[in-house]
Sequence to fold (420 residues):
Amino acid sequence: MKVFKFGGASAASIERINHIPKILKPYSEEKLLVVISAMGKTTNALEKVLQSFYEGKKEEALLLFNAVKQSHLQTAKYLLVTHYNEAEDRLSNFFTEVEWLLHDKPSKSFDYYYDQIVCIGELLSTTILSAFLNQEGAANEWIDVRDIFRTDDNFRDANIDWAVTEKSVAEKLLPLFEKQNLVITQGFIASTDENESTTLGREGSDYSAAVFAAMLSAESQTIWKDVEGFMNADPKEFPEAVVIPELNYEEVIEMAYYGAQVIHPKTIKPLRNHGIPLYVKSFLDPSLPGTLIHEKYVRNLPPIFVLKKNQVLLHLQSRDFSFVGEKPVARLYEILSQLKIKPNLMQTGAVNLMICVDEREDKLEKLAGAIAELFDLNVEKGLTLLTIRHGDERNLNELTKGRRILLKQQTKETAQVLVV
Ligand code: ASP
Ligand code: MG
Fold:
């Protein structure tokens, strides 16, 4: 058994979707679970639908949703010749599900509605792709992952109930492989025990695939991407970026932690615990070797650069120049965890504390309010956090040339600077 994951970029256009059957062809004799994200920027578009809906702008929400609907119908009509009917029923059920909800007045939490609306992206993409693959001779079974992945109701960042999910994998997913070698399902989404949809966090499909890989004891997981493999920097920011052929699990966890967008941070743990290798490969050119991520320690890595934009620095100062004691700091951690804010960098001094966090307006306001009860607060926005692993002073100087450094932290392997 192998697990493949195709991201939004692999299904972003007709031309790209046409690649997928070609990629799957060499594996037709093997059992293969394929996990797919929403097409292109669908998730972002659905977030806008939700925004309007939650602001009470029903007509606008319906209009925005209609655009998502039409673009999927258009894709379906274009791709599906003999198998259009197979997809149509299911598609219209999903459309109705959302439209019905959009006619309601929002009475529950934003995060709840987020998951009910945004989950549609994956359901639409997999419906179209499953029919398309059937049409192209890659006979497959489609399954709604919400019937398998059980989570708590921590909407937008739901936690998988491992035991229940494992049972469903055995009872509902495995039997499908008796019918076909290929099963198509969704990443990113799941459901509570009350059948409410949940999501696992943006870009969570990698993680979904890893959970499946672990539960199926897969021999490997492959993430098909629009880059040649795992690179030492984002090629959009660093044109000289190179592919790293081999990486240790730990290095990837570190990179994801520092903000590398290549793989969802939660992905590695289940794979590592089960010793399942992860391949990152180019769907545009599958003949390229890509990157192998596994247990083996890898020497002589190139310097790895991670750039995190839209950062905010919070300067906290104790009011009466007393030390920043344990109690206020403990309280601060409590506030951060309540608001689900992960500090990206933190530095404590005698009477002050600096915290760098992602710029998220909704959370920042609440955070600032809560902090102001404990400390004097100063906020600086529009910053960039640079992280260099396995680099040297020269890399650091080059990267920060002409920029003002607000905060710097360095360990043997990792240097981090927050710059304007
Ligand atoms: N479609 C979701 C997102 O864009 C999940 C994913 O792509 O992994 O975040
Ligand atoms: Mg994606």
User: Anything to note?
Assistant: The CA atoms of residues 86 and 131 lie 7 Å apart.
